[in-house]
C-alpha cells in the first residue's frame, strides 16, 4: 500500500493516496509494525503536504515513540 501511495502521488490522485496510506497505517498497526507505520507517515507527509494533515500525522508519529 505504501509504495502504491507513492505512485498515485506522482499521478496527483490525492484521494487515492490518502486512502492507500490509511490502509497501510491500519495494516502496520494491526501487525505491530512500528517501523512500517513511521515510514508510511513519513511518505504520507511528503505526498500530501497540507497543514491540517501534517499536524495530525505529527502527533501520530510523536505518540509512536512515547
Topology:
Elements: H1 2-11, H2 14-31, H3 34-47, H4 51-64
Helix pairs in contact: 1-2, 1-3, 2-3, 3-4
Question: How would you describe this structure to a colleague?
Answer:
By secondary structure, this protein is mainly alpha-helical. The protein has one domain. It contains four helices and no strands. It starts with a helix and ends with a helix. The model has no long low-confidence stretch (mean pLDDT 77).
Number of domains: 1
User: Which residues sit in consecutive blocks of at least 5 with pLDDT less than 50?
Assistant: none
**H/E topology pattern:** HHHH
* Main structural class: mainly alpha
Helix run count: 4
Q: What's the shape?
A: elongated
Rg calc? 11 Å
Number of beta strands? 0
User: Per DSSP, what share of the residues sits in E-state strands of 2 or more residues?
Assistant: under 5%
Main sheet characteristics? none
Q: Mean pLDDT, as a whole number?
A: 77
Helix content: over 70%
Distance between the termini: 26 Å
Compact summary:
The protein has helices at residues 2-11, 14-31, 34-47, 51-64. With 66 residues, the protein is mostly helical. Helix 2 (14-31) runs antiparallel to helix 3 and helix 3 (34-47) runs antiparallel to helix 4.
Structural features:
single chain, 66 residues, mainly alpha, elongated
Amino acid at each position: 500500500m505504501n509504495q502504491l501511495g507513492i505512485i498515485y502521488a506522482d499521478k496527483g490522485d490525492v484521494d487515492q493516496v490518502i486512502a492507500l496510506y490509511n490502509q497501510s497505517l491500519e495494516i502496520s498497526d494491526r501487525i505491530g509494525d512500528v517501523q512500517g507505520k513511521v515510514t508510511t507517515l513519513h511518505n504520507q507527509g511528503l505526498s500530501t503536504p497540507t497543514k491540517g494533515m501534517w499536524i495530525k500525522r505529527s502527533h501520530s508519529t510523536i505518540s509512536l515513540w512515547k
